[in-house]
Amino acid sequence: MDIKQEATIIKKNTIFTMITNALLAAMKLLAGIFGNSGVLISDAINSIGDIATNIVVYISAIFSRKERDRKHPYGHEKYDSIISIFLGVAIVITAFEVGRGAINKLIDYFINDIPIDVPKWYALAAALLTIAVKEFLFRKTKSDAKKARSSSLMAQAWDHRSDTIASFGASVGILGAMFGLGFLDPIASVLIAVFIFRLGYRIVFAGISQVVDQAADPNIEEQIKEIVDQCPEVRSLDLIKTRMFGMKIYVDLEIGLDFSLTLEEAHRIAEWVHDQVEEKIPDVLHCMIHVNPNYKKK
After folding, report:
1. pTM
2. Of residues 67, 59, 79, the one with CA closest to residue 15
3. 127 closest CA partner among 160, 186, 173, 190
4. Residue 1 pLDDT
5. Pick from 105, 84, 93, 114: which is nearest to 49 by CA?
């Protein structure tokens, strides 16, 4: 899949997500206001914030999937990783706000003796519908992120999952309040905030790892070794280095070949290894090979 196809997948998914989030935000806001549900109103505000992050991801698709140029010979994929860090930070901030609001509500309920309003049934219906829609968005976006090899789109997918969990907590809180157990609302929100914070931290950590050229998964290196071993003319694999570039991988190899081979023969073997690595491991963006003279038999 080329860069333009990847950009198209990201753009289509993000536009669909923006429209869906806008509809969800309007529905939850109205249901929260007329259904006496503060937690649903907060969830609606969260959806409005999601629209802003969707716009950022769309912009990322424009910049990160641009063709290589003279000033950027290695491409622009790291924009994708930077955007995923931004989304992770946004999720952490959301977790903090959810937790802070829930703790304040617990203080008001248990210490200040301020009752929690009993919500209407359609507030619960709106929360349950949100769970279904967000779970669908999570699965679709995760699939598209893998196709487009986009870390920012993958971060957006996990943002959908965090919204699913938040809406589940809202449902528990609303249902509890309907049966006179209003304190379940803020307690559930605190637990959800902890989970969302953990999710945001993982996304930020993954994005930073990609920006600082962290090595690829050890399984990738094993696959590369297996490919090199398939070539009987390679006497040794002297060096293997990998680095993440967004969700793609750069590979540097040093292979040992018979010292008596001609330059043309050595080039043919190195090119075969190069082509096999890039063909059999789709996530490899480029494989660079250096040939060393080997004076021993394999």
Report:
1. 0.70
2. 59
3. 173
4. 62
5. 93
